[in-house]
Amino acid sequence: MEITVRRSEERDVPGMLRLVRELATFEREPLAVINTEQQMIADGFGVNPAFISFVAEADNEIVGTAIFYFAYSTWKGKYIYLDDIVVTEKFRKKGIGKLLFDKIIEFAKENNANQLRWHVLNWNEPAIHFYEKYKADMDPDWITCKLEKEFL
Hints:
This protein is an alpha+beta fold. The chain has four helices and five strands.
């Protein structure tokens, strides 16, 4: 089985959104995804893209994706925030997550990012162990804060 990792294209959005929904189900929030294919196309492939993404393909099927964007820290400067990295369940433990994560690291270096950030659920032990292999700093001091659309 050959795995190809490449920059995503507009035609990949249905497969990417399928993976995002699969991740939401895994993370016990199956109804939380309100994004649509049309919105992802506009947000990722329009005039001013809000995100960048890679996909992993096997046998012409999207089996993994990584979705990220540039952000800015007053302390660190330009960095990359990894919003989601997901590999479909039947293709896990085949090195696809590593291929995607390494591609993001390569992208970060090429773009002079000073940091790569992401969140991981505290109960997602497979993901935590994956990131620990990269010597990731699991910072227990910060609390994730957010305002939902109805409060904006």
